[in-house]
Amino acid sequence: MKIRNLLLIPATLVATLSSLTSCGVDRWPEYAAETELDQWITTVMRENYLWYADIPEDKNLNFFKAPEDFLKSIVSKEDNAASYIDTIYQQPLPSYGFDYNLYQVVNNDTAYNALITYVLPDSPASAAGLKRGDWIVEVNDEVITKKSEPKLLNTGLALKLTTGTYTYQTDPETEAQ
Q1: How confident is the model over 43-74, as pLDDT tens digits?
Q2: Domains (range + CATH), the chain
Q3: Greatest CA span in the chain, whole angstroms?
Q4: pTM of the full structure
Q5: In this model, does residue 93 exceed pLDDT 80?
Q6: Residues 150, 44: Cα–Cα separation, whole Å
Q7: Please, are residues 47 and 72 in contact by the beta-carbon 8 Å criterion?
């Protein structure tokens, strides 16, 4: 009798485990469309949000909420309603896959340089070798102006970008004093 009981318990355990694992159906394609915006919000917030440490772990998040409700559930108490969703485009705008900030060139009131602040993985910008922290100093062999600056974001045309780096230089005369 004891031998049968010992044999029945492992057999029951094996049957239970195999039934649990064999029922697994890959439902990711079905759920991806419902959760992709919330997952994108989480990714961007973890990389750029001032209070990123306050965002709960993924296992504690409900990625099936509407994007506006999802954002409200992850923002910090310190945020004071500074973070919100302005609009959600159904079709993405054409993009090279990077973002930047413009800085006016010293002693030139119309010329700007663009500091790259973000490069999307697997984007045209990434394939071209652009990295966060690079500076774009010319577009198609022309300095960047407020008029030509929109070309950097979404024209969809091939661009020739001249990049550079800034280094801190001291004035030898000032150092000697």
Answers
A1: 888 988 889 999 999 999 999 998 889 999 99
A2: 30-79 (no CATH), 98-164 (2.30.42.10)
A3: 99
A4: 0.46
A5: no
A6: 23
A7: no
